[in-house]
Design goal:
Elements: E1 5-11, E2 14-20, H1 26-33, E3 52-55, E4 58-61, E5 74-76, H2 89-97, H3 106-119, H4 125-132, H5 143-156
Parallel strand pairs: 1-5
Antiparallel strand pairs: 1-2, 3-4, 3-5
Helix pairs in contact: 2-3, 2-5, 3-4
Bound molecules: FE2/S2 (inorganic) cluster (2 copies).
Length: about 160
């Protein structure tokens, strides 16, 4: 077995020291080494978006990103969007319209939208749909999710 590698990741604004095998994904490192279980393991092959986190503010697939490749970039998980017990702007908007059913896909959707809002504060409908196009939800028809996304944009305006 290959030796584990010592890494310091910047996660939700804090330096976090971990030791991982070379092929450990960022998703596995977050969930198993740091007990940050908001990012979910769905397909584990880059299709569903359940593992989405932000790297320097941009959405990435945690299951396709090696922990050793993160370097000094800032990792933001759903746990880092608001202080404990509070909701971030996208979470609040989704909650207000009842856009969560089983919730498995929700952290990835929240981070996909948060990444969009950081890059484009006033996205149009096409941009919202494009941002969500890589996040699969098996429960809903996306009507409520899009309604929540629009509400998040309004709240940010
Ligand atoms: S678990 Fe990463 S895209 Fe599905
Ligand atoms: S709320 Fe269940 S998969 Fe999206």
């Amino acid at each position: 077995m290959l030796d584990r590698i010592a890494l310091t990741l910047s996660v939700n604004g804090e330096p976090r020291e971990i030791r991982v095998a070379p092929m450990t994904t960022l998703l596995e490192a977050l969930r198993t080494e740091l007990a940050l279980t908001g990012a979910k393991r769905g397909c584990n092959q880059g299709v569903c978006g359940a593992c989405t986190v932000l790297l320097d503010g941009r959405p990435v697939r945690g299951c396709l990103t090696l922990a050793v490749a993160v370097g000094e970039r800032e990792v933001t998980t759903v746990e880092g969007l608001a202080p404990p017990g509070q909701l971030g702007r996208v979470q609040e908007a989704l909650e207000q319209v009842g856009a969560v059913q089983c919730g498995f896909c929700t952290p990835g959707i929240v981070l996909a939208l948060e990444g969009l809002l950081r890059e484009t504060p006033h996205p149009d409908e096409d941009a919202l749909r494009e941002a969500l196009s890589g996040n699969l939800c098996r429960c809903s028809g996306y009507v409520k999710i899009l309604e929540g996304a629009r509400r998040a944009v309004e709240a940010a305006s």
